[in-house]
UniProtKB/TrEMBL annotation:
SUPFAM superfamilies referenced in this protein's UniProt entry, alphabetically: Periplasmic binding protein-like II
Species annotation: Phytoactinopolyspora halotolerans
Keywords of this entry: Signal, Transport
Family: Belongs to the bacterial solute-binding protein 1 family.
Protein name: Carbohydrate ABC transporter substrate-binding protein
């Protein structure tokens, strides 16, 4: 699944970028450690281990140790993560074992309850972090080196997302921007369609596509145990545009009920697209097919002009077939999801992962510190299709246009940015009843009934 993940089609991507970066380090790289399969995965370049001396000096001899990672970031998006750990592994002697799952949210809690958590989990929901900390006490507070990196390279808001009851647990990892609509530039050009700059223009464009005999939208919300989450993103993006950021904040903090009339209005506005039989679901079927269409496949009919628009985050990029050019004049690109109410400006919805540890062994803390810093974030950016709110990343290191555009939005002080609300809600709601409620809504349940059921499920 692609929930909260990012890896796009890059000009220099994956292993090739890492090979170039490692080769640039020169031939005087000290002790390379165990080169093994990971070294070959990195293209065989030499690593300058002087860049990693800090970790062994701070945390001691790490040779022969192991750190296990558990994540939502599944193939093919996971490979650039795995590649980015090569230098750390070679120079510290730590074996980083990466595991991912489409059923992460449920299985992580099962593993914690069973006394077998991973060393580190990449959590895509601050709300889930709060639930795990308060219900289990299993997460370990972040060490000083991690906190120092976060204080230096991230805004206070991002640090707050990883803090529970005053204790800092989880550093931000990657970030993403969700307020995008993917389209095929050539299809727009062939049909004389223009990029809409307002919501009204986007609806008018949708009507024009219908009049021309096409189906304007394709969407899918099937994602294993996390089925439903793409619809929650759609609702959140619309709420920011119809009710504004203050109401949005009140909603996820439960200062207003989940079924507040302003939320009902936002869901119904989203339904003008998602539940409109004339608008969806291009390439797949009727409205109800959205519930069974895999999120990874949902935008692909754009390439065949079976649909023309697909609302999805920056991290959708790796799902396009190999060889697909992502550019303004390429096979696919994305435009900003237009505003609705002028008074609320141009809101940006985003999210990200956070690294939480369940063990305080030296090798675990060393790895935590590494991925919280600017050095790793810049390396990861060169691998393509990945974005971070880490201000230590040079924008020139972003290899593809969607990633760079996303990073610019994240670093724009004037942007009205809000984190994914479902990720900030209690886990039972944000990663539970909100997801399932959206499935019920897509398959026929009315808005008020669904939102009331979710409100009744909010924990005391």
């Amino acid at each position: 699944m692609v929930h909260k993940t990012r890896k796009g089609t890059a000009a220099i991507g994956g292993v090739a970028a890492l090979a170039l970066l490692l080769a640039a380090c020169g031939d005087d790289g000290g002790d390379d450690g165990d080169s093994g399969d990971d070294a070959s995965a990195g293209g065989g370049g030499d690593v300058d281990c002087a860049d990693f001396e800090h970790y062994t000096e701070t945390y001691g001899d790490l040779e022969g140790t192991e750190v296990t990672i558990y994540s939502t970031i599944t193939p093919p998006e996971d490979q650039s993560h795995i590649d980015s750990y090569v230098g750390f592994e070679e120079c510290t002697g730590v074996d980083v074992v990466y595991e991912s799952s489409d059923e992460f949210e449920a299985q992580l809690q099962v593993r914690i309850q069973g006394g077998n958590p991973p060393d580190i989990a990449y959590l895509p929901q601050p709300g889930l972090l709060q639930t795990i900390v308060r219900d289990t006490g299993a997460p370990v507070p972040a060490p000083a080196g991690v906190e120092e990196n976060v204080d230096e390279y991230f805004s206070p808001d991002w640090k707050e997302y990883g803090t529970v009851d005053g204790t800092f647990y989880a550093a931000p990892l990657g970030s993403n921007v969700k307020s995008f609509v993917w389209y095929a530039p050539s299809a727009f050009e062939d049909n004389g369609y223009e990029i809409p700059e307002t919501w009204a223009e986007m609806i008018a464009l949708s009507d024009q596509i219908v009049a021309d005999g096409g189906i304007p939208w394709c969407q899918g919300i099937a994602s294993g145990d996390a089925t439903g989450w793409p619809a929650t993103d759609f609702i959140e993006d619309v709420l920011l545009r119809t009710a504004g950021p203050d109401v949005y904040d009140q909603w996820y903090q439960h200062e207003i009920p989940f079924n507040d009339p302003q939320v009902v209005d936002a869901v119904n506005t989203a339904g003008e697209i998602l539940k409109n039989p004339d608008y969806v679901n291009g390439g797949f079927g009727d409205v109800s097919s959205i519930a069974t269409t895999d999120v990874n496949q949902a935008g692909l009919p754009i390439l065949e002009q079976q649909c023309y628009m697909h609302r999805a985050a920056s991290f959708y990029a790796p799902n396009w077939p190999e060889g697909t050019e992502i550019a303004e004049d390429g096979d696919v690109y994305a435009f900003y999801l237009p505003p609705i109410e002028e008074e609320f400006g141009d809101p940006v919805l985003g999210a990200g992962e956070f690294t939480v540890a369940f063990d305080d062994r030296p090798e675990v803390q060393a790895f935590q510190e590494y991925v919280a810093g600017a050095e790793w974030a810049n390396l990861k950016a060169t691998l393509g299709g990945w974005v971070s709110a880490n201000t230590g990343v040079d924008l020139d290191n972003y290899q593809d246009p969607i990633s760079r555009l996303s990073a610019e939005l994240l670093q724009d002080d004037d942007a009205v940015f809000r984190f994914d609300a479902s990720d900030l809600m209690p886990g039972d709601v944000g990663a539970g009843s909100f997801w399932t409620g959206m499935v019920d809504w897509i398959t026929g349940a009315d808005t008020e009934t669904v939102l009331t059921q979710i409100e009744e499920n909010w924990p005391e």
